[in-house]
Write a structure and sequence with these properties.
alpha+beta, 185 residues, globular
């Protein structure tokens, strides 16, 4: 997607060697079966939809605390989401939904519909104009209509690691720390 040729590339700052840029470059490419950028096994999803006026912003803000409290439960059911942001933008005229996830586009959307419909519907029903609900046959068309591709996106360090890989690594490191502590104690 973006061409990076180290031999001819000029970094933004003259204080940064091109070799440093090359070590971190992730070569983003368009998603295989959908909108969004992808770097190794990590992808971005960005949706911007109009908000029902005048009541939609108040409905969303009223629901935001509960949606935030439950976010880890619903997102962990998917097991592929690294981070998520949902916000009213442009003085409450639009709602922004941004996620970074591991895997391809279609499996991600299918998993969101399968595992997180009540939560997504709670945030978007009576908030986003024309939102049909994720169980609707019109859900995919709604997503396609309002999804946009980021122009600048960073897949994070280790874009090959999924949330499950990261959780497993932390569990192994914790177990090793506990074992080492036990042998020293």
């Amino acid at each position: 997607m973006y061409e990076f040729v180290p031999s001819t590339y000029q970094p933004i700052s003259p204080d940064v060697p091109v070799e440093e840029i090359a070590k971190h470059f992730q070569s983003p490419r368009p998603q295989t079966d959908g909108v969004g950028l992808r770097a190794v096994n990590r992808s971005e999803f960005t949706l911007v939809a109009p908000v029902v006026q005048p009541a939609g912003p108040a409905v969303f803000l009223e629901r935001a605390e509960k949606a935030c409290i439950e976010a880890p439960y619903w997102e962990n059911r998917l097991g592929t989401v690294h981070d998520l942001r949902v916000a009213l933008i442009n003085d409450g005229q639009q709602i922004l939904f941004c996620a970074t996830y591991s895997d391809e586009f279609k499996p991600y959307v299918i998993d969101v519909i399968r595992f997180a419909t009540p939560w997504i519907d709670y945030m978007f029903t009576d908030v986003a104009v024309g939102y049909p609900g994720l169980a609707s046959d019109d859900a995919i068309a709604y997503i396609a209509k309002h999804q946009v591709q980021a122009n600048v996106w960073y897949g994070g360090p280790n874009p090959q690691a999924s949330p499950r890989d990261i959780a497993k690594s932390i569990a192994v490191a914790t177990a090793l720390d506990n074992l080492l502590d036990a042998t020293q104690g």
